[in-house]
Structures are given as C-alpha cells and as structure tokens.
Amino acid sequence: MKPAAFTYHRAHDVADAVGLLTDLAAAGEDPKIIAGGQSLMPMMTFRLARPSALVDLGPLRRVPAMTAIREEAGALTLGALVTHHAVETATLPAGFAVLARAMRWVGHLPIRSRGTVAGSLVHGDATAEWCLLALLLDAVVVAEGPGGRREIPADELFHGFYATAVEPDEVVVEVRFTRPAPHAALTEFARRHGDFAIVDAAVALDLDGDRVTGGRVVLGGVAPAPVRVPEAEAVLAAGGDAGDDALVAAVADAAATAIDPPDDPQTTATYRRRLTRTLVADACRQAAREPQR
Amino acid sequence: MTTTDLPDHSVPHEAADPDRPVHGGHEHSPDEPRFDGRRGRWVGASVPRREDPRLLTGRGRFVDDIALPGMLHAGFVRATVAHAHLTALDLSATRAVPGVVAAFDAADLALGDIVAILDRPAEEFTPTAMPVLARSKVRFVGEPLALVVASDPYAVEDGIEAAQVSYDVLDAVTSAEGALAAGAAVVHEEAPDNVLLDVSMFDTPGVDEAFADADVTVEVTTRSGRQNALPLETRGAVAAWDARDDQLLVQTCTQVPHQVRTVLARSLGIPERTVRVTVPDMGGGFGQKCVVGREEIAVAAAARRLDRPVKWIEDRREALTAGFLAREQTYRTRAAFDADGHITALDVDVVCDMGAYSCYPFTAGIEPLMASAEMPSVYRVPAYRVRGRAITSTKAPTAPYRGVSRPQYVMAIERVMERAARALDLDPVEVRRRNVITEFPYTGINGVTYDPGTYRESLDLAEATIREEGWYEARERGRQDGGRHLGIGFCCFSERTGYGSEAFAKRKMTVVPGFDISEIRMDTTGSVVVTSGTMNHGQSHETTFAQIVADRLGLDPEHVKLRQGDTERISYGWGTFASRSVTIGGSAVALASERLGELLCRIAAHLLETRPENVALDGDGGVVQLDDPSRRLPFADIADVAHLRAHLLPKDVDPTLTATASFDVPGDGTFSNATHAVVVEADPGTGQVRILRYVCVEDCGVVVHPQVVEGQCRGGIAQGIAGALFEEVTYDAQGEPSAASFIDYLVPTATEIPDVSIAHLETPCAFTANGAKGAGEGGTIGAPAAVLNAVNDALRHTGVELDTTPIHPGTVLDALEGTS
User: Fold this and answer.
1) pLDDT digit string, tens, across residues B27-42
2) Distance between first and last Cα of chain A
3) pLDDT digits over B207-240, tens only?
4) Does the complex come out with an ipTM higher than 0.85?
5) CB pair distance less than 8 Å for A271 and B158
6) Could you tell me which SUPFAM superfamilies the record lists for this protein (chain B) (predicted)?
7) Residue B741: is its pLDDT beyond 60?
8) What whole-number distance in Å separates Cα of residue B278 and Cα of residue B260?
C-alpha cells in the first residue's frame, strides 16, 4: 500500500496548472491533478491509480475565487477548492441549503475537511453526494483547458463508472449551481455511518403552497453514474398534495421500478430497489418539510 | 423512518444513560473492606492505568516505531490465485529494481516448515506442514511466495510488482461443503478428503432413546461468517543479527514470545539461545498474534543472511487477505426436550473451515475440539453426542480469535433454547432457567467439572433489568402499532478461562501450554521488578499485576514494575491468550510476591532480633514487629542489607532479594460466566438492525480493576456485534477474498456500537491465587447469540428464523416484507 513512483509539481495559478498538465502530457507523462486527495491518494496507495506526475492545486488556495462561496443572479458558485466542510458550515441561501445539509453524509470529518467539491465531481463516483446534488440543482462545471474556459452542464458531466466529461488537460475552476431548490433533501443508506452509500436519493420538490407541481428525483448507487429518474419526476409533475402519503409512495414506487440496479452477492438488485423505495419516500417527506421555519 | 410515539433511539428514554448502573452494579473503592481475603487495598480499585501516560501522549513504542541503523524494509510476493502448482517464480526483474537489496524464495532461505501436531491417531488427525514460503504449491490468495528486501517500503512494492510468477491453477476449495464434496480438489496431499481433524469426542448412552422419547425435538443449523480478529496494529517484526551477542534479535508484536522463539530457532536450525524475541507496546492481538506466523521467520532469516536489520510491517491489505482469519463454522444441532422444557439430549455436528493451514501451536483442531468439549455450555445435558471436524480449504488460514469456538457453540445452543421456547410456548428465559446449572461444583456429561458461578443469577438479573426498564412493554407497543419491530434477546454462557496444563493436555496437543512463572526482585531502594510469562497487548497488565503485587507485599503499585515480552528477561512463558493472564500469570505473580514477602520478614526478624513469627508486612512498605509496632523496618533498609551489607544477613539466607513462583491451574480450570441481554430494532425501510439497549451481567471472580474488566467487556461486545451484524470475509468461486480494505470489511465504528451497561457479580475462584477468573473473551462470546436472538424476536411475527451471522439488512428486509 505504497504508491508507485511519481513526480510532484506545484501549480501557482490556474494557467500554470493547465500549462503543467499540457507540458507533462507532451513529455509522455500521465499527469493528474491533486486537490484534497481524498479519493486519489487511497487509489494510488492501492496502485489502482498510478499517475506518473501529480499537479498540486494546493497553492491555489490563496487565490480567493478558488475557495469562495458566492451567490449571484440566483445561482450559487463554489470555487474549485471549496471543501465539503466549508459548505457544511456555510450559511447558504434557502435555495441552496440542501447542499450544507447533505454534507453530513460525506465520509467523515477528516475527509470533509480536506476533500473538495470539484474533486468529488470530477472523480464521478456513482454514489457521491456532490454528483447527485449536481444533477438536482443543475450544476455547471467551469473548466479551463489549453483552449480556454468551457462550461459543462451536469447532465453532460457523467459518463459512467468514474468517467466524466472533464478532459485530462482541464482544470475545474468553479462549480455553479443554477437551480435553487428550497424544498429539497438528500438521504442515503450505508451499513456504517460515513461509508459510500449503497443507494442514495435526492429529491427537490417544486411547490406551490402545499401543492406539488413538479420536481427532481436523483439516485446514486443504482447505475454506473448518478441518474435522474424521469418516471418518478413525471409523478411529481402530475401534481398532488405535498403531505399526501399516496403521492410519496407513487414517486418512490416509480423510482424503484424504473431503475435497473447492479446485482452482486453482497447487495442484490432487489435490495437496492427496496432501498430506493425507502430512501426516495424519505427524501420526499424531508423535502416537503424544507425550508424549516 | 418510523412513526410512532416512541422516542427514536431509546425506549424508554432514561435507559440509554450509560452511567446508569444496572442492579447489582458494584462500585469499588480502595477503602472498601476486604472481600474474601484475596482482595486488598489495591485489588478491586480502578487505579489510574500505568500505561496511560505514555500511550495517551504518543510515547508508546510499537514495532513500527523501531528504527535501527542501516535498517532495510521487507515485503512479500504473495499468491494471486487460491490454489495452484507453482510452476515458475522468477525474481530476476525484482532484484534489478532500484533500491531492492535482495529477494529470496523458499529455496534461497531453506527454512524449516511450521508444523503443529496433535497426539491423536491418524483416523482422527492429519498433520500438515506450513512452509515459511510456499515451495511448490499455493493454497490461498495472499500466501507468501518470496521475500523482497529493499532500501524503503516503496522500492519493496516495486520489487514485488516485478516478480514473475507462473501457476498451474487448480480448482479452489471455498467452503466446507465444497471441501467435503466428492471429487473436490485436494488442498493437502496428506489429507485427500480435506479433513484435518475428525473426532467424535462424546457419544454417551441414551442419546437415541432421548430423541425417541422427546416431546419436542429442535433442529437448527447455525453458521458464522469468516472474520478477521483485526488488531488495529497489524503484524510486523524488526529483526537484526547481533554479531557481538551471537544472537538474532527479533522485535515483534506477538502474544507468545517464547513460542515464536522456539519456532524461529527450529526453522532456522539454530539454538534457541541465539534467538531473542522482544515485544514492545502492542496494539491488540485478539488471538491473531497468539500463533506463530511465517512472515516474522522469513524476515529474521533475511536479517541474518544480509547481516542488516530488516523491518516488515504488514499493511492493511495483507492484514485483511493474508493474515490469520477466524470463525467460519457450521453447527448442525439437534436437541431433545421433555414437555417441561428440560433438555434431554444434544447431538451436534461441528464443521470448522480452518483454511489452508494448521496454526502453531494449536493446530487446526482447536476450534472443533473446544466446541466438542464444552458445547453443553451452562446447561444440564444428560446425553450428548458430538462430532467435530476441521476442514482445510483454499482460504487464508485461521487462528483462534477471542472466544475461540465459543461464540459459535454458544450461538448454536442459545438458538436451541429459543427454538425450544417457541415449540413449547414458553418464555425463552424460562427455558434457560429450567436447564441452567445451579449447583456447583457440577460435573457435566462432557466430564468437565464447573467451579461455582452465577449462571442463574446473571440470567435473572439481566432479565429483571430489561423488564424493569420497560422494554417488554415497548416491544408490545411497537408490535401493536405495527410500525416498530423491537426484539429482546438473551445469551447465557460460561467460559473456561484458566486453561492449565492438565486441561490443555486433554486436547492432546504435543505442545501443552498452561503454567506460568514469575520472578520478583527488589532493588536497594525497596522498589520491585516482577516478571510474567504473559504478554500484555492492551489488557493493562502493568496496572493490574502491580495491584496484585502491591497487595501481597503491602507497598504502593507505583513501586512495582512489570516486565514481560523478552525471552532473555523472562525464563519461560506461554504468553497471553485464553483469558489466562490474571488467572494464571496473576497467580504466579501473587505467589512470587508472597515468597518475597516471607523473605523480607525473615531478614527483618533477624535484624530486629526477634522470632520470625513476631513480624509481619505492615501494608505500608515495611515489616513491623508484632509485639512492639514501634519497631519497624522499611523495605529499603532490608534491601540495603540484602545487597550492600550481606554480612548482616541470616547465615542461611542468600544475598539479594529475589523469589520465583510458578502456577498452574489444576484439573478442568475455572469458568467465568455472564448473561447478555440486548434490545434491537429492525428498520422496515432498510432492514438495518439498530441496538437500543445492551446489558451485560458478568462474573469473572474477583475483579482486580473494574474499569479494565469493563473495558474488556465493552471491547469484546463490540467485536461480537461486529460478527453478528457487520464483518465477513467472503470468497468468490475462484477463491479470491472479497475484502481487501475497510471499504469492504465492515468493521463497525463507535457510531454503530451502542453503550453497554455492565454489572459485576463476584464468585471468587477457589483455586487461582487471587480469586480471579479471566475476563478477556466473554464479551465476544455472548454478543453474537444475544444479538441474533434479539433480531429473531423482532422478526417473530414473520415466522422467519435466522441462524446465520452476520445478519445482512437485506435478509431482515426479506423477512419483514415476507419475501424470504
């Protein structure tokens, strides 16, 4: 459990990072960005990942925009080096408070203290809370590469099984959450607190008073990448009373029926479906109670 | 996820208070009067732990903290397939890796095998050899094939990666059923049926008649998953050849330093005097370190060969896949009961999947033999038949893990009690009450004599606690409301702790542990150094043994220093396992202390010019003249004479102040006992089992240090819960283990483990020198059955009965949704 040999490079600003990635790749290296390192380092110690060069974004923490949490024009923007813990402890506008509430599910405190929002998104774990939240709140990932900056909407971000649209020579600069969700919740189930979820579910309700007019249902752990569930969202779009158990059950059933979850001896597809039903229902009920007054 | 009027985490609320003592709970203070002549001023008090200052301030020294000048690092090329003939092992690329100093395969080191033998006939036991490095065949994923030594641990792993290994792959044997099946691949040629031990220890008269006459017959097959004892400090060793001392110094974390020395010397083919094994601080062992591993031998051989210090620290992946595992056992149990709920016969078939090799010194027979010998547990069983088998498979080998087979056989018989209760429509506690041993000493159908304990009393107290706290009502409310599934489970058991030579000899091991020796020495300042052949690996021996010495000599524990874990300083010992330390080691320490006390008195009488019977230890670091208490000699004055002015000693007393004593437990040993009571709730949305209340009523005889005993209980219970609900190493059809990291091996954390209330009952042991019975393993033994019974109680309305651990939430959900 010691990493294979690699060279270490410190980036001094975003352009420097992009330049290092480009130059190292041109020299035949296989560079990889490291920010919080909470996913990358364990993979390297198991030699499941063996980049020949690391480009450390650590020095960019002194660039204010990289650690900033700011709201403008109805969107919430997180700098690429914002940590889970920074979000957990931030006072966020009601439309984005679900981000802070969801952070309790992210690993353990030491992981939350070092791990970054952008790092989690680029890592693309199918159960990662940030990946679900990106789909729930229409995140836009802003990445800078040799050709300049581009914006990647969440629904184009995840390509399945730890694969994302962010290119190896690109550096994520910020993540913008564009769809406020004041009535939203994320919940999950793992055998132990802090583990990767077996299934996690995020729900955002569009409410008109107590009346549901639509919403989002996002699941993790049921496919190679986090997914929205149109069948469940259709139930929400058909409308109903937010406190109606039948509506909640219908949404949960629709989600559980629509998915084709992985099946393995430890955790069967059947069990994942049942968890989905339970967690979607639970997320619906919690979402209807938000924002708490 | 639940919607009733019951509070969320505890029912009723006050019950969750961990400080709330259970009835019978007993606070000890140093000023309390003597308990039975064995407890004194210090024994029985939770004095501050002697180990704490260094351990809590990061000044402990563990194997990985040791760095020697010129030290190299080592690691192992390990098998990547479960079962194969090794067709080629090419280390030339390894040796070319920058930083690699040497690479050795089995032929290079030419070490003797590790062989553990039972003195049993061939039809009962088949000896097998565990090579230090695999030679021609590999038998599990992770088996060491070659040793790579390099300048740093990174280069070691590079070297391991560069090794070229070719296999002629054979079928894996991944279950006991598979091992026993016709045409199964053969793991060891010596055992073509894959059976290493097959002993029918008992077939007493009347078994078949009892079943024929039974009013109720209960049949249950219980299974427990393969676990890792998981000391947080993984295994490791630093070995160095000392040319001046003509000695190999091996610093390693082992529970059995002398046994490691013996195997090392024999494997290397050198005299034992040329091997010194020392043990620094240890971060747990739990049995995984009470057997001799192959890695430390290979590392020692490399250090000798290279004439450089070599360090090996097992990493977590190795620890999870290639370390000694434990527990995977199946019990097919039949029990006959009469209409009154009395058990009339027990018929058990025990199959233990011991993995690829027999461990030293216990052999693969340890689990089925212990189960066979002790299966009747705390109950009066009039007729008993048992067959015990140890099966070999292509999985990592096993070592006795805290509790050994007791968590499993207790689970089997406790499930029998629960099922009998249902069949007879009796309360499960009542069925136990009707069968539990109440008169002592009791000689069971298994020929074992049980010394006095509180089997019935612990059961009554545990049940009363649960009842008085309102959990039965809470369970019924939950059932009536339909939303909550609470269950109450019990486990009543005893645990043989003082395994002396006589008891171990009955297992027919050719290496028979049992006794312990202690040497005590007082220096010129009146301060004491005492040795023990036991081996502290987290049990606070430095504190508890000092308490025992302090009471016997009448001095402050601060003046007592315990020495363990050094084969040069300790003449001989069997280390620490089987809850033997305070019972056997503590007794030896007590007896040695008494002898030193007698010596001090004898010298003092001479110096005071009075008769020996006219002096006594004064309990305050001196000897007093009984008929004139104004005449007193502090120990330092006596010690001064004994060392520096020996001409003043009585003519027949040798200079210096030393005494030695050995202790061995006679006969069948002593039995600690306990009852555990658990309240669980099964979540209908996820199938998750949450523990709402855990009560342990235990009796380990005289409690030397209540906090330490409670720590042992709580830690053991945590490991028992781990086995009941979380941890399991599974293997796929190719023999690949599932768990290579803590992502897959679900060791529970503080979040998953509940508070535990502990009550002490005290039945002093009549034949240990300090009245203590062992306290190391009980928690682990009781928890799996108690939790499993509670879960079954929560599922009672579903008709489903679960008899396998760990309990997966999916299984619980199946039961609750009626889809099992």
Assistant:
1) 434 343 333 345 578 9
2) 49
3) 999 999 999 999 999 999 999 999 999 999 999 9
4) yes
5) no
6) CO dehydrogenase molybdoprotein N-domain-like, Molybdenum cofactor-binding domain
7) yes
8) 10
Nearest to B746 among A3, A192, A274 (CB): A192
pLDDT over 60 (residue B194):
yes
Handedness of CA B142, B145, B147, B153 (dihedral sign): negative
Residues in A closer than 8 angstroms to B809, CB to CB, are: 191, 271
Q: Please confirm whether the linkage preceding B12 is cis (ω < 30° from 0).
A: yes
d(CA B777, CA B789): 20
For residue A215, what are its two tokens?
């919403």
Least Cα separation, residue A66 to chain B (angstroms): 31
User: Which positions ≥6 away from B621 have C-beta within 8 Å?
Assistant: B526, B554, B555, B556, B559, B634, B635
Q: How confident is the model at residue B412 (pLDDT cuts 50, 70, 90)?
A: very high
Residue % of chain B over a pLDDT of 70? 95
Q: For A154-165, what is the mean pLDDT? A: 91
Q: CA-CA distance, A124 to A88, in Å (whole number)?
A: 20
- In chain B the domains, ranked by start, together with CATH numbers, are 13-30+325-501+667-814 (3.30.365.10), 52-60+515-663 (3.30.365.10), 72-192 (3.90.1170.50), 230-321 (3.30.365.10)
Q: How confident is the model at residue B20 (pLDDT cuts 50, 70, 90)?
A: very low
**What is the arithmetic mean of pLDDT over B383-389?**
98
Quick one: A161 exposed, middle or buried, by C-beta within 10 A (0-12, 13-18, 19+)? Answer: exposed
Least confident interval from B68-72, B164-168, B502-506, B692-696: B502-506
Q: What is the pTM of this model?
A: 0.94
Rounded Cα–Cα distance for residues A113 and A132 (Å): 20
> What are the DSSP calls for B543-598, one per residue?
HHHHHHHHHHHTS-GGGEEEE-SBTTTSS----S-TT-IIIIIHHHHHHHHHHHHH
In one-letter notation, the amino acid at residue B451 is D
Residues of B in contact with A265 (CB under 8 A): 730
pLDDT, one tens digit per residue, over B683-720 is 999 999 999 999 999 999 999 999 999 999 999 999 99
A110 touches chain B (CB under 8 A): no
Which residue of A2, A5, A271 is in closest CB contact with B813? A271
Residues 6 or more apart whose Cβ sits within 8 Å of residue B32: B44
Of B212, B199, B584, B564, the C-alpha closest to B389 is: B199
Domains by residue range for chain A, with CATH:
7-56 (3.30.43.10), 68-177 (3.30.465.10), 184-289 (3.30.390.50)
pLDDT single digits (tens) B770-790 = 899 999 999 999 999 999 999
Nearest to A278 among B153, B157, B686 (CB): B686
What token pair was written down for B522? Answer: 């007082």
Facing B685 at nearest CB: one of A195, A268, A278:
A278
Which of A192, A266, A275 is the closest to B752 by Cβ?
A192
pLDDT at B521 over 60: yes
Contact A267 B743 (CB under 8 A): no
State the Cα–Cα distance between residues A127 and A107, nearest whole angstrom: 12
Q: Write out the two tokens for B108.
A: 């290079």
- Which among B1, B100, B157, B686 is the top mutation candidate for probing chain A, defined by the most A β-carbons within 10 Å of its own β-carbon? B686
Find chain A residues with C-beta within 8 A of B175's C-beta. Answer: none
Residues of chain B neighbouring A282 (CB-CB closer than 8 A): 1, 685
Within 8 A of A2 by CB-CB distance, chain B residues are: 153-154, 156-157
What phi and psi values does residue B149 have, to the nearest 5 degrees? -115, 130
Query: Token digits for A61?
Result: 């923490």
Distance between A38 CA and the closest CA of chain B, angstroms: 14
Cis ω for the linkage preceding A262 (within 30 of 0)? no
